[in-house]
Specification:
4 copies of one chain form a homotetramer.
Chain A (H helix, E strand, L loop, with lengths): L2 H34 L6 H7 L14 H10 L4 H7 L7 H13 L6 H10 L3 H29 L7 H14 L3 H4 L7 H17 L7 H5 L1
Chain B binds a DNA duplex (21 and 21 nucleotides) through helix 1.
Chain lengths: ~220, ~220, ~220, ~220
DNA sequence: GATGAATGAGAATTCATTCAT
DNA sequence: TATGAATGAATTCTCATTCAT
């Protein structure tokens, strides 16, 4: 092994270490942001959560806001991962299964997602700058699946774009408090039951005919 | 008119002026909070928006947080007003019309609503303290309507509580950015079209049979 | 009674009312100052204590500090009253009796006195401006009595001025906490006993021969 | 020297620097408090006096009040040091000498002591919380000395506790303005003369027989 | 690269004083 | 003359960012 290779390796190793550290900081920061919100979180708290000195943060990010931006713009988020591979949805059963998984996904527990909802989805500027394109991409990808389903006949006639947006909106709504934390104390069974109802409504609508499940009875 | 009456009138007049001023401050503050979020908003901005001196805020509210709480806990919010008189919904057509109105309601434009979503619905403590009971009341009232509809047969079998929550969640989701502001520029017609699709999905589901509108074609 | 007299009477009556009001405000303010100190007391509190509107204070005094100055420079204070008529002290028994009364005087309970101690006696400027001359007058008057006593032989040879100051200092010290409030809980008897000891020391000294009282035993 | 030792030394050095800085701030603050009083002093002035930025104060103390408390509760104060070693007073001459030193001590010039008098000795809460126990300890220690003196016969019969309190009160009184600053301009000789008179009165009382000094004449 | 003390701009809040009613 | 809302300067305290070690 040559000196040059050694040097190369050392460089790569350092790169990896830096990258790992950045990741740790983002995890810690997302956790703090999710709890207190971006503005109320302090760099001191973030540093403590990342087990690092306050000043050291600035070796990895240029500002507190830069950390937030990194969290928001980084891909893939849990929702991303969920929607990432919708391309393979080629029949009704797979689609139903996908909707069920999406609704039941415990995404809201993840600091990452809560931070994005709290900050980007309620802030015009952040949303436009870092999330809009992202969401657009997801929407159009999902819209294509719906469009395919409609053409293939395993979905009823639906406006692909509007439908994609409505589904994403519903998934988001399930991550906010009124859906998550109410009633304050809830058994896991009740929660499952509630989710099942949501899936049912999403799939068959308020006014629709009996859902297949009910038809069986 | 006696002196006493004069005094009474003066007292009442002052009371009204104070109340009006409080209202102005709340409007101004809600507008600022909606744009920048509670934590990032400064009392200086709020005072400027309300066109009074910074110190004068404290003649009407004891703290910045007190202003936020007043906004959040004040009733009725636009959503309240919407759901307030659902008791009269006694047949399918009225129910459908109600859902349509609810989705189309321009509530999201109102600073008031956006402040509540931004702060209370993403903050555990605020939500528990000021909104939880509120939402619970709305939910149970709406659930009763659904329950009535199911019994009367103009609604298919639905879990009343879960359904109520799902509908409210959807209405909320429609007030957040991904549903409102995307794509950034949108013609009113496109927006209406999008809303119509959302209504359609809410009423008839993703997998449902053709909606009545489509059946006509 | 002529119109002029009527007018005169009205004027005098108003004068008296104003004076009475000023007095009330000073009483109230002294009470507040004694508790919280001048700087920490607010005009709002003073107004509340005087049962008057905040703005009305300024019809009687030109500033908060003006109120303090009025309290401090007003005569006679309790100490003044005590020392006012020392001119009649013409023999040993009267002098002893006077010392006893001075030490036992419950002056410290009075807001007036506590305010003077708290503010003027620990503040260079206030003291120089408003109390120095006052104290000097008292001191020289008391020094004359001592001088007379020494000449007449019913007091041992003492430096009149230094003695006057030392006695006044001791009376002051008895109004401060370490002498008043310690130990925290104290029976009235214990307090009397403590005062008696102080009088004894003041009259006969630490190293002196037995006090007359003790000699009797 | 190992790396570990190096690290240890660095740690210790920083600790010392922090401690030194705290001390500087306390000195500066005591000086400001002594002049203007706690409430009227501003953090800006304290910072300026300590020659650091205003915000830096909060790296060493958690609040302005915390600085005051640190000054007040810190031991030993000048008075402490004075009374600390009274245990060795075993005869009349030593006792007389001690009293003389205590009265003549230039303690009042020290900001530290003036701050304690100004704030703690005129403020119920501060006194109870931070000084009461302190004074009690001093008092009981000094009372034991007096008790010993009485038993041994080189002190006349005195109530030990009350006497201890009276002496401490007198020492305190000598630190306040009427004793210190009057008359405004005073030659050192006059001051000494005044102190001597105070000592004389303290030792032999107002009514006592001629002091030893006078007997010599 | 890591540290954490130093900084100072800016935040919320208080309060003596003024002034329209 | 009495009132108390309005004012804004001043205060305490926070915190993102910098920088010497």
């Amino acid at each position: 092994m040559t000196d040059d290779q050694n040097h190369q390796d050392g460089f790569a190793r350092r790169e990896r270490r830096v990258e790992r550290r950045r990741e740790e900081i983002l995890q810690a920061a997302a956790s703090v942001f999710a709890t207190k919100g971006y503005a109320a979180a302090t760099t001191r708290e973030i540093a403590a959560a990342a087990d690092i000195a306050e000043g050291s943060l600035y070796n990895y990010f240029s500002s507190k806001r830069d950390i937030l931006v990194a969290i928001i713009s980084r891909s893939p988020s849990p929702v991303d991962r969920l929607l990432a591979d919708t391309a393979h949805l080629t029949d009704r059963d797979q689609f139903v299964q996908f909707i069920e998984q999406a609704v039941m996904a415990p995404a809201p527990e993840q600091p990452w997602m809560r931070t994005i909802i709290k900050e980007a989805w309620t802030d015009d500027e952040l949303f436009r700058q870092y999330q809009a394109g992202h969401i657009e991409k997801l929407t159009s990808r999902f819209a294509r699946v719906i469009s395919g389903g409609v053409k293939a006949g395993w979905l009823r006639p639906l406006d692909p774009d509007a439908t994609a947006r409505a589904v994403i909106a519903l998934l988001m709504a399930f991550m906010m408090h009124p859906m998550r934390a109410c009633p304050a104390v809830e058994t896991p069974e009740a929660r499952t039951q509630r989710m099942q109802s949501a899936i049912d409504i999403l799939l068959y609508g308020l006014m629709g005919h009996q859902s297949p499940e009910q038809e069986k009875e």
